[in-house]
């Protein structure tokens, strides 16, 4: 018989004692093992925590979820993790998915390699919610904008600038549905809109209002209504003059069949 001492046998393999052909393939497996159909390998006749899968190398079995195949041990070994039970579910080959139900989902596989509540996930990514807001513990989605207001005194607004929690019953404010950037509010004269606090803060009135002026919540100042021109007066004061009056005082000429804005 030829010497095949330089040819490696697989684990649990032995050379055949009697054979018609003697070559490097003249080997068999110990009791309890069978030769693999795909490689030089001895497969256990029974593999715990496995299911039949003829296309799977080397032994025609796949490991159950939560187990992985070990060539060295010829067995399905349990997966290991430091994640908290209930936050994940195993997939094939120790891959995993973050657990999710109708009321509670965990997040972070793609970005952090583990599963966390939305609140933990946001903290680990360094997301800071707006004032009077927080990230929910459990959420079916967990994006940067998925924060919520801490109580019912506020309403969430992504249209506010910057997005935040708007007081439902603010002081010194009046409704203005055409101003979503300021929580659909205007401040009373003497108050300025605070975009961080999302409320009207006292800033003082520069001078008493005169005709055709409107208050600007963002600049804490008077502005002229549309169609009126600002004419400066004493230091720090001005008047709002109708366009027609201002035009006449400056001897502006109108074309034929035209009229000044706000003229009757």
Task: Output the keywords.
two-stranded antiparallel ribbon; about 260 residues; mainly beta; 3 helices; about 30% strand; rod-shaped; 22 strands; about 5% helix
Descriptive notes:
Helices cover 7% and strands 29% of the residues. The strands form 11 sheets. It has a two-stranded antiparallel sheet. Strands 3-4 form a two-stranded antiparallel sheet. The N and C termini lie far apart (122 Å). The mean pLDDT is 91.
Taking Cα atoms only, what radius of gyration do you get, to the nearest Å? 39 Å
Number of helices: 3
Q: What share of residues is helical?
A: under 10%
The SSE order reads EEEEEEEEEEHHEEEEEEEEEEEEH
- Sum up the overall morphology in one term: rod-shaped
Q: How many beta-strand runs?
A: 22
Uncertain stretches: none
Proportion of beta-strand residues: 25-35%
Q: Could you describe the largest sheet, including whether it forms a barrel? A: 2 strands, antiparallel
Helix/strand class: mainly beta
**What is the straight-line distance between the termini?**
122 Å
Spatial strand order of the main sheet: 1-2
Write down the oligomeric state: single chain
The overall pLDDT, averaged over residues, is 91
């Amino acid at each position: 018989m030829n010497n095949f001492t330089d040819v490696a046998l697989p684990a649990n393999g032995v050379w055949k004692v009697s054979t018609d052909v003697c070559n490097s393939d003249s080997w068999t497996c110990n009791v309890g093992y069978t030769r693999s159909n795909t490689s030089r390998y001895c497969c256990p006749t029974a593999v715990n925590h496995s299911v039949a899968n003829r296309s799977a190398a080397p032994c025609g079995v796949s490991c159950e979820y939560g187990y992985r195949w070990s060539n060295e041990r010829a067995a399905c070994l349990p997966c290991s993790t430091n994640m908290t039970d209930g936050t994940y579910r195993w997939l094939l080959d120790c891959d995993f998915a973050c657990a999710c139900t109708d009321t509670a989902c965990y997040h972070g596989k793609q970005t952090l390699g583990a599963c966390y509540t939305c609140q933990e996930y946001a903290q680990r990514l360094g997301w800071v919610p707006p004032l009077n807001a927080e990230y929910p513990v459990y959420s079916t989605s967990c994006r940067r904008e998925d924060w919520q207001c801490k109580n019912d005194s506020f309403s969430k607004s992504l249209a506010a600038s910057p997005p935040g929690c708007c007081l439902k019953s603010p002081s010194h404010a009046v409704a203005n549905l055409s101003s979503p950037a300021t929580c659909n509010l205007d401040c009373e004269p003497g108050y300025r809109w605070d975009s961080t606090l999302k409320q009207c803060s006292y800033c003082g009135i520069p001078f008493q209002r005169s005709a055709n002026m409107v208050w600007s919540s963002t600049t804490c100042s008077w502005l002229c209504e549309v169609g009126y021109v600002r004419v400066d007066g004493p230091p720090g004061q001005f008047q709002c003059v109708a366009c027609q009056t201002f035009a006449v005082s400056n001897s502006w000429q109108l074309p034929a069949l035209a009229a000044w804005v706000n003229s009757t």
